[in-house]
Amino acid sequence: MEDSWETDFPSLTAQRLREMYTLLLDHFGPQNWWPAETELEVMVGAVLTQNTNWSNVEKAISNLKKRNLLSLEGLSTVPLVELAGDIRPAGYFNIKAKRLRNLVNFIVERYEGDLSAFLDEETQALREGLLSVKGIGPETADSILLYAARRPVFVVDTYTHRILGLHGMIYEEAGYHELQQFFMGHLPEDHVLFNEFHALIVQTGKTYCRKKPLCSRCPLLEWGPITPNWTAS
DNA sequence: CACCAGGCAAGTA
DNA sequence: TACTTGCATGGT
């Protein structure tokens, strides 16, 4: 890591992260993520929820289940146009149909369709493999690593940026990897903890960050008033 | 009516 | 390398 880029945030400490986790867990309770029945369903959901409300993803997954397409076999053989039609409620349906196909084809071709063999790969190899698939970026890959393969990898999303930014815990221009390293560097590498923590952050974002009035009820306000345009010292 | 959601890749300068 | 734009439905 070369260098000079300031990778530490003065206000973001292990202590502060543990406080945040406790506040959110006490407020919302356990989230029991990922909301899916199988590992493949987690992976499909991870692609479908890209920049998309989860309620829309549920409709799309429901359609796939009704048509018995929620399998490597089904997803890799159904005509692309039909797949797109089935996942229509999730938005971006044409591009997401291709992304799902790219993902299942990767497993079919590289692992002979053996999903368990794929998920048993070493974490680093698994991540690189996922990122090599067109349509799988850092967040989607890490969601699959954490919630399908149960690896201690922290998932960063827009809510993570927004919430930590609002509370002056990071620089606004901080990138995905920097935020991820913060959580992973200051917390025990426990996939159960990371699972719950990310889910709680999303729940907080959905509940309190959508509209300004709701913001006043966020449990994190215990840290003090929000400072929207905080910048590095 | 406008706005946005648990991103990502491709295009432009 | 650093911005910008396209992708699209359904809920508030």
- What spatial form do the alpha-carbon principal axes imply? globular
- Which stretches of 5+ consecutive residues score pLDDT under 50? 1-5, 229-233
Number of domains: 2
Total helices: the number is 13
Radius of gyration: 19 Å
**CATH homologous superfamily descriptor of the largest domain:** Hypothetical protein, domain 2
Tell me what you see in this structure.
With 233 residues, the protein is mostly helical. The protein has 2 domains: 14-32 and 155-223, Endonuclease Iii, domain 2 (Orthogonal Bundle); 39-147, Orthogonal Bundle (Endonuclease III, domain 1). It contains 13 helices and no strands. The protein has helices spanning 14-28, 39-48, 54-66, 72-77, 80-86, 93-111, 115-119, 123-131, 138-147, 158-166, 176-186, 191-208, 212-215. It is globular, with a radius of gyration of 19 Å. The model is unreliable at 1-5 and 229-233 (pLDDT under 50). It binds a DNA duplex (13 and 12 nucleotides) through helix 2, helix 3, helix 6, helix 9 and helix 12.
Concise summary:
The protein has helices at residues 14-28, 39-48, 54-66, 72-77, 80-86, 93-111, 115-119, 123-131, 138-147, 158-166, 176-186, 191-208, 212-215.
Topology:
Elements: H1 14-28, H2 39-48, H3 54-66, H4 72-77, H5 80-86, H6 93-111, H7 115-119, H8 123-131, H9 138-147, H10 158-166, H11 176-186, H12 191-208, H13 212-215
This protein binds a DNA duplex (13 and 12 nucleotides) through helix 2, helix 3, helix 6, helix 9 and helix 12.
